[in-house]
Amino acid sequence: MKTSIASIVFITALAAAIPAQSAEQLGKVTFPTSCDPAVQQQFERGVAMLHSFWTGAAEKTFREVVDRDPSCVIARWGYASILMSNPLAGQGASPKGAALAQTAIEQGRQIGAKTQRERDYLEAVAAYYEDFANRPERARQSARAKAYEALAARYPDDDEAQIFAALYIAGTQSQADQTFASYRKAAAILETQFSKHPDHPGVAHYLIHSYDAPPLAQQGLTAARRYATIAPSAPHALHMPSHVFTRVGAWADSAATNQRSADAAKRDNDPDAQMHAMDYMVYSYLQLARDGDARRTMEEAAQVTGFRVQAGPYAFAAIPARFAIERGDWSAAMKLEPIVTKFPFIDALTHYARALGAARSGDAASAEKEVQKLASLRDNLIAAKNTYWANEVEVNRLGAAAWTALTQGKNDEALRLMRSAADIEDKSEKHIVTPGRLAPARELLADMLLELKQPALALKEYEASQVREPNRFRGFYGAAMAAEASGNRQKASDNFAKLIAMTKDADSGREELRRAKAYVAVR
Q1: Bridge-partner residues for 8, per DSSP?
Q2: Which of 65, 132, 209, 475 lies 20 to 30 angstroms, CA to CA, from 71?
Q3: What's the rounded Cα separation, in Å, for the pair 26 and 418?
Q4: Which residues pair with 28 in a beta bridge?
């Protein structure tokens, strides 16, 4: 397929550490159309934004293309595409967005595209919106993926069709599928495209998503280190590398790229994207024992308002809970103020933190009240047929109940509940709305075993947790303490040394670091 004369290159490579320049940099996209050549450059700019999930800017761009060339049907495809929101988040289009998209699709059908390819693109996106009100998001995702796979098969030389097909295949990945079949299938398509189009924003972006799983994450580092240099003008492009950085425990890289993303989102008046980046920042800072930076970010996040999707409220609840739990400040955790949102799984974050804080402070009665609240929120999610988040809240309930039982002296019950929580959590993956669970359940199981003076078993669980959640501060420290208590001084020294190296820029006086340094010095 030949490239139209108006196809353009949007950026040259820019080091991710350098602030975005005044010239817009969105990546290289080539998408031939039958539209007026005068709007071709602007249309491809919109597609570049679409590939980086820059919703507001892309919507505006596609509307402007239609205003300039009302016969440009493919711009209506772009408009309907961006209204699907982040295809990997599972939330999908809003009812209002779906109505706008359906109107655009019908207008496009009535006008009639000038080429069969453009008509086929319009019908591919229409597959997602068909019977929108009566189908769950999972069914819409499946229909979309099948439609785009068919589009890609019909136009094998159309690289954009291949790239979008890979995205929507990845969008069907279930968190419960530990083979990561959809991610692997998408990655195979995208790797071929990456070799052809190293400056394409969508290819690098979707590769990161396709490798956003513990056994695949190392394969995503090339795309992660590339994407922010491809499209530094898009806030989401600055954030996305941290999905892989978090998976491999590259905390300084994650904190740095999310600072740039949060700043860009703030300038773009996108509070949800800003908060999403800040949640990742806080999580990273806490692993590095940069508690001052984490506190500064938390205090700034507490002032952000105007959320439109789940990412903002999630981060608003998660950030203070993380700050308390990761630092073992159980008194602060139990004093967190409950919040009420339209998302029960978000409300559960604060109640979970309060439960752990109360139980680990010895207040079983208060912890039990929080456990009951978690059960109620879980039931609400079950009633709403939100299986994934019901499962996540149930893991939290089990973990909170386990530590409550331990406080009550019911050691066997505590271990049974905590092991059940860890086993259930291991069968599912974290959602992309979060950098990680507030406290990995298997790590909490290890903490409990260590407290019950079973260090050998605790060490085994810490090491198992580290496979899925590498380079965590509490994981290194707990493994070191368990190894020392088990008589394995070399393994204790190794874990303490890793902790010290990871936190070389720490700005906190954590007692754990003092102990680690003292131990290694003696060794």
Answers
A1: 29
A2: 132
A3: 46
A4: 9
Q: How far apart are CA 28 and CA 432, in angstroms?
A: 26
**Residues with Cβ < 8 Å from 396, sequence gap 6 or more?**
348, 352, 355, 374, 421, 438
Structure tokens at 53: 């999930």
Number of H helices, E strands in the chain: 26, 2
Task: Sort 384 into a burial class: Cβ within 10 Å, 0-12 / 13-18 / 19+.
Answer: exposed
Calpha distance 242→300 (Å, rounded): 20
- Listed as own residue / partner, the contacts of 438-442 with beta carbons closer than 8 Å and 24 or more positions apart are 438/318, 438/321, 438/322, 438/325, 438/349, 438/352, 438/353, 438/396, 439/325, 439/356, 439/399, 440/465, 440/468, 440/469, 440/472, 440/475, 441/395, 441/398, 441/399, 442/468
Q: The whole model's pTM is what?
A: 0.90
CA distance 398 to 184: 32
Q: How far is CA 363 from the centre of its chain?
A: 34
Bridge-based pairing state of the strands 8-9 and 28-29? antiparallel
- Token code pair at residue 305: 């308002």
Instruction: Find, among 315, 320, 323, 311, the residue nearest to 285 by Cα.
Output: 323
Q: One digit per residue, pLDDT tens: the chain, 523 residues?
A: 333 323 322 222 323 333 334 589 999 999 999 999 999 999 999 999 999 999 999 999 999 999 999 999 999 999 999 999 999 988 899 999 999 999 999 999 999 999 999 999 999 999 999 999 999 999 999 999 999 999 999 999 999 999 999 999 999 999 999 999 999 999 999 999 999 999 999 999 999 999 999 999 999 999 999 999 999 999 999 999 999 999 999 999 999 999 999 999 999 899 999 999 999 999 999 999 999 999 999 999 999 999 998 999 999 999 999 999 999 999 999 999 998 999 999 999 999 999 999 999 999 999 999 999 999 999 999 999 999 999 999 999 999 999 999 999 999 999 999 999 999 999 999 999 999 999 999 999 999 999 999 999 999 999 999 999 999 999 999 999 999 999 999 999 999 999 999 999 999 889 999 999 999 998 7
Contact 190, 206 (CB under 8 A): yes
